[in-house]
Amino acid sequence: KVKIKINETEVKVPREYTVLDAAKEAGVMIPTLCHLDLHDLKFVNRTASCRVCMVEVEGQPNLAPACATPIRDGMVIKTDTLKAITARRMAVEFLLSNHPTDCLICPKNLHCELQELAQRLSVREIKYTGTAMTTHLDTSSQSLVRNQNKCILCRRCETACNEIQTCGILSALNRGFETIVGPAFNLPMVHTSCTYCGQCVAVCPTAALTEVNHVPKVWEALNDPEKFVVVQTAPAIRVAIGELFNMPAGSIVTGKLVAALRKLGFDRVFDTDFGADLTVMEEAKELIHRIEHGGRLPMLTSCCPAWVSFIEHQFPDLVDVPSTCKSPHIMFGTIANTFLAKKLNIEPSKVTVVSIMPCIAKKAEAARTELSIDDVNNVDIVITTRELAAMIKEAGIDFDKLQDEDFDHPLGETSGASVIFGTTGGVIEATMRTAYEWLTGEELKKVEFKQLRGLEGIREAAIPINGEEIRIGIAHGLGNARQLLEEIRSGKSKYHAIEIMACPGGCIGGGGQPFHHGNEDVIKKRQEALYKEDKNKKVRQSHKNKEILELYENYLGQPYGKLAHELLHTRYRP
Ligand code: HC1
Ligand code: SF4
């Protein structure tokens, strides 16, 4: 450790710290903008491009950026001098000189880090007006919108896209005033191999990258008397949406969420968790089938559409490794359009399925032709956690005061296994809770596979079954996934099954979730909340969910059987 002084306070901090790290430890707040450090998820953006965190260092004539200045023994730092504060304000004033001022109608209004900083630094005029960037909006994709005019060149999206996800879509183009961050040749996003994981959206401080807004489509459906509008909500929504109503991270608001959806006017309110239970039934059977019949191993989970797009674009030779299971919300949409429509005697063409997802890739996924049945897609509209919160606010619903309500039945009962789909490691834990009992014929005494949990980027575990070991791998973040895929490609993979989720943390960290603004505790709290919700459930294994069993008995037949294959399985694009 080394001794330094910050604003007259002496602190001892590890030698490898930057001035910013040291200040944090000393309880001194230095504002930042481009900087982002998610330590446990190994995401650090150190471009030092915004010059907002400038501080004075004794003996140095120029101010130094705290985020990129290593400390040294005996350093004396001042963060609150007039010179430092003025320089910070000026950095923001420069940024604003080339930034639209339409905050009132901006999709990031009240969630924008630039706006917040301008307020905090008391910027009261746009000082340096002159030529400003004007580029077109890229609305080519079904998932994300790029508005280059709002980009402040912090390069966080580039770090997410290249270092964490290893997708290499976004990077700086041109030089000087012409500099922009975008795909090669500034191609429309739809013509790139972007997976739409949305991690660029999750870390963008402004509205340069946002989700496509599908809220108007939902209002339209809800107000169409011809439509029977069914909604389903993903596992990761219930532990995150409360944050957008001023509740602490990790608040579990399942009952209020259901009540809000009913108040919005949906005809039926369902849970994607039911689709997740269905996925476990199919995926566990598929895994057993592959193990017992010499099928392709390892089998990879397939519920994350960004991950599916990644393997299709970057490992087309491996498209036979993912499970053929459709993702849970698509499975549910399919059941809504078939079994439910029949049961309620409604024309399937009148059924509109809306999925509330933590994810922007699910928007593009819903339109994949491989997922349609008789050329009809079974999920019509996907909106994110943030978009749903906006609807609830628009409708004037006081979320906090809502009384808990339950999902509609049948198709509304869910197991604890399905809830944990929303976190990294949860899909495969849920699958193993069922596969174990089916393979051994014995009851699983402890349903929690703690060895599969955590936030390490790549994890592994061996589960003893019938005197042998089922070896499980887990990766979250596409860069980590790439490592496991390279092993499979070179024939060195030792696993039977691998779970991959594109987003760091899994869906709890999805691109459609409330912004974490660099606070990774938020993601940990959401994860803890999912495990708590699982623990509180009476039934914790998918194959013990009565309504799932009834659906097979009355409609689907055998898991992994003929009708299940037709409705619930898919193929991939080589
Ligand atoms: Fe997910 Fe899934 S867990 S993919 O992250 O398998 O989006 O929450 O709904 O479909 O169940 C997302 C979450 C979600 C699906 C499920
Ligand atoms: Fe979407 Fe979840 Fe995959 Fe992220 S991990 S891209 S939120 S499905």
TrEMBL record:
Record keywords, A-Z: 4Fe-4S, Iron, Iron-sulfur, Metal-binding, Repeat
Record domain 2Fe-2S ferredoxin-type: where: 1-83
4Fe-4S His(Cys)3-ligated-type domain mapped to chain residues: 83-122
SMART domains per record: Fe_hyd_SSU, NADH-G_4Fe-4S_3
Gene3D superfamilies found in the cross-reference section: 3.10.20.740, 3.30.70.20, 3.40.50.1780, Fe-only Hydrogenase (Larger Subunit), Chain L, domain 3 (3.40.950.10), Iron hydrogenase, small subunit (4.10.260.20)
Membrane-crossing segments per the record: none
GO MF terms held by the record: 4 iron, 4 sulfur cluster binding; ferredoxin hydrogenase activity; iron ion binding
Residue ranges constituting the 4Fe-4S ferredoxin-type domain according to the UniProt record: 142-161, 186-214
SUPFAM superfamilies: 2Fe-2S ferredoxin-like, 4Fe-4S ferredoxins, Fe-only hydrogenase
InterPro entries linked to this entry: 2Fe-2S_ferredoxin-like_sf (IPR036010), 2Fe-2S_ferredoxin-type (IPR001041), 4Fe4S_Fe-S-bd (IPR017896), 4Fe4S_Fe_S_CS (IPR017900), Cytosolic_Fe-S_CAF (IPR050340), Fe_hydrogenase (IPR009016), Fe_hydrogenase_lsu_C (IPR004108), Fe_hydrogenase_ssu (IPR003149)
Keyword Ribonucleoprotein: no
Protein name (record): NAD(P)-dependent iron-only hydrogenase catalytic subunit
